[in-house]
Amino acid sequence: MNDAPPRVYSIPAGIAFADALASGLKDRAGDDPMALASATVIVPGRRALRALSDAFLRVADGKALLLPRLMALAELDGDHNTLDTGQIPPEIDPLGRRLILARLILARGGEFAVAPDQALRLADALADLIDEVQTERLDFARLRELAPEEFAGHWQKTIEFLEIVTRTWPAILNERGAIDPAARRVLALAARAALWRERPPADPVIAAGFIAADPALAALIATVSRLPAGSVVLPGLDRALDNEAWDEVGEIHPQFGMKRLLDAIGIARNDVRDWPSSKAGPARARLLNEALRPAETTARWRTGAKIDPMSLSGLSRVDCATVGQEAEVIALALRHALETPGRTAALVTADRNLARRVAAALKRWNVEIDDSAGQPLSETPVGVWLRLVAEAASTDFAPRPLLAMLKHPLAAGGLSADECRRRVRALECAVLRGPRLAPGIEGLRGALAGATDSGSADERRLLRDWVEDLAVRLDSFLTALKDSAATPSDLLMRHAEAAEALAETPQEPGSLRLWRGQDGEVAADLFARLQGPAGQDLPAIAADRYPAMLTALMAGITVRPLYGAHPRLAIWGLIEARLQRADLMVLGGLNEGSWPPVPGEEPWMSPRMRKDFGLQPLEARIGSAAQDFVLAAAAPEVLLTRSVRVDGAPSVPARWLPRLDTLLAASGLSLPRPGARSWASWAEQIDHPGALAPWPRPEPRPPVQARPRSLPVTAIELWMRDPYALYAQRILKLRPLDPLDADPGAAERGQFVHRALDRFIKLHPRAMPDDAVAALLKTGRAAFGEAISHPSVAAFWWPRFERIAEWFVAFERERRRHGAKVLASETDGRVTFAASGGAFTLTAKADRIDLLPDGRLAIIDYKTGRPPHPVQVVRGLAPQLPLEATIAEQGGFGGIDAAETGELAFLRLSGGNPPGELIDALGTEPISPIVADAWNGLIELVESFDRAEMPYHSRPWPEFAYAGAYDHLARVGEWPTAP
């Protein structure tokens, strides 16, 4: 048999490979139904196997047919009927191998010290290296030769690190009586090839669809090609390429893999024959092969034959502005294909982000699409739930992780889903927004105890009881996380129990809700395996790294839905699309870095070291991606898409597109674009309303009796500038929600400083102590409270307060030396006057009121931020201080006799340079007229809004307005002339 010439065939690109292969095999079998059934067909993967099965159904025209034995390559080593695999050691469990390698990486320590989750990712890269080396039949013993002294010290240390695979790992495998999956595959393929060489099967054996092969697979394919009834069928071999160009085919060329395979088989390209049922390759395939010819021979484009315009029939291209628009264009094209009965369509892309966007866009029409790549377990609903439970527990119930967990659809905690959502919203509004809580359940308990203004007493009691119940459900998991002696298996078990307990509803136990569905079953299998023998190899896990490690474990597991996807639409990866064909092929994400991928850098070897070691260069991935492009783009109807910008940055089109444009331009042609522009315009219009109706400015007119009869001086400015905001705040009682888990902000800083100065002045209203700065700092620490331990407060605010304290003490001594006396600090005042709608009360809390030597009053407002400009105060746009002066002059501040105002000032306390500054609020303007104008303006304002017909306009004077918390309710951006 070894002397028999190899039989190798090719099916040109552009012809449906699976259909042509099935048709040729059926024709070979003739009328004998058993002849076809006796054949064995080996294809690269299970997707190709399914595509070939469907092709046989099509070529049979619905008639009964005995199919040949179809085998995916992965099934060859498990075929016990024709191969004695008992002589080959079993392969080690992939999950166990991953965990053992991670543990070995963690044990290295030193400059290789990493966290457990990072060790898992490095273990994946290490496992890939092991598989690649064994697939190429190389020996790790040669690693020491790869880092001579002239190389950087980094590579020397890397080689030392790789002793894991040269010494430690082989010993572990020997101890367990197992081998690596790649090693077993190599041995199984070699055993199969040896068996067939020794006892060649009489029945036909066909190896079909391979565009490249590693040494073991290439040897098997070579054996198949020389069997008495064997043959090899290649997809898209370019037999029209001239010999000069064929000699120049390198790693990045689409034919590189098949060139190596032909060399391994021992056959010249000219000796490859056409598959019997395939006709000559279409013009499109010739165009693509010519466009991708080796760069060294592209001068032939000038002298070669003109391009046939028919090669562009059915081919179009869309360049979209963004990835989002590209996804909409593709979704529209796929959805349009469904309008034709029986028509199929597929998106082929290497961009997983684009694939997810397209799948989401198709849900607009309730279309679920089959994505061959599936979804990582960590991103499925069950995987996300498990991650959120782990994050909430490991962060000691920090508000953000806690809310994320409680708002997940699986969260119930023994309640119905609706009641759980209601309590989550109540808890969020009551205690989780605003400055940080104390950690843990104790922090929630304390916050709830202090939330006396949130809901009724019964509602607060329900929240407290519910939080206690959540604590019980999470108790064992929290205890395990805090127990340094807890094993990883213990953590996983307690985690699963807590996730089940939190998923429980009155109708269903948590175990039923959590572990059902495809993702639930996969997650349950992972947890069961990790709590079994494989779990013994888990490295020790610190509580704060447990969520990251769990995510890393789940990220390596793919979940594929078993049903529910549309039968005529699909999303294929590049490998899945090689032998499959749809009526419409959409090739998406045609940008450098996506398709083709970036060759990348591996952590173990430099490019030169890979070459010296005998591994294929990383650039070979570009050649495989190029062949995938040719095979897919040669289909009868193809839409090419790319986005001009990706993640906000300009992108570079896939290298094949400029080549194609250049080649076509030489013949006066270009890719058709009219259809492409219509797709883009449809995508832009799909969410565009038929008509735009600008929203008028709101003009609410609540009854006079519903309008406020008492306001603080700080609300008067808001009333003047934006009455609608006051309406929303004081009449509708709407309050903006504070940020979640907020760091102390500018408002809190102002409160701390005000509180500290108030305490200091009340402790020392007359004489200043000798150690005044120390005394002020002491009151400051008390005012800052627990917030002083916050990193940003300790690093930024407290040093500023120390500077403020020094400046304030000096300022205060100087002011008192000149005769000013402090009368009140943080004092309340009020004044009531008659109005047509009833008595109106103006209230105020003055930061400080001093008695000047001439008997007049000084009203001072502390500002840790920027105070209003004197022009704003004089023009009445910032009336706070003048109105406080009015209250003081009318004796409205308790304990302070009515007196004329002699000073209105802002005490700016920034802690910067200078730390403090006394600023005259009115500049050089006299006080009395300004105070009188402010009072008269207030009376006029109250009277105008005491008329029922007076609306609460939004931003009546846009030039004086500023962005506010209620602008979105007023729909400011939708006004005909939005400011």
What does this structure look like?
The chain contains 37 helices and 22 strands. The mean pLDDT is 89. By secondary structure, it is of the alpha/beta class. It has a six-stranded parallel β-sheet with strand order 3-2-4-5-1-6, with helices on both faces. A six-stranded parallel β-sheet has the order 7-14-13-8-12-9, with helices on both faces. Strands 17, 18, 19, 20, 21 and 22 form a six-stranded mixed β-sheet that branches. 40% of the residues are buried. The protein is elongated and about 120 Å long.
Computed CA radius of gyration, to the nearest angstrom: 38 Å
- What is the CA-CA span between the terminal residues? 86 Å
Chain oligomer state: single chain
The count of DSSP E runs of length 2 or more, i.e. the number of strands, is 22
Q: Considering DSSP H and I runs of 4 or more, what fraction of the residues is helical?
A: 40-55%
Give the spatial strand order of the biggest sheet: 3-2-4-5-1-6
Q: Flag low-confidence runs.
A: none
> Into how many domains do the coordinates divide?
6
Features:
22 strands, six-stranded parallel β-sheet, Rossmann fold, about 1000 residues, alpha/beta, 6 domains
Produce a short descriptive summary.
The protein is an alpha/beta fold and 979 residues long. The protein contains 37 helices and 22 strands.
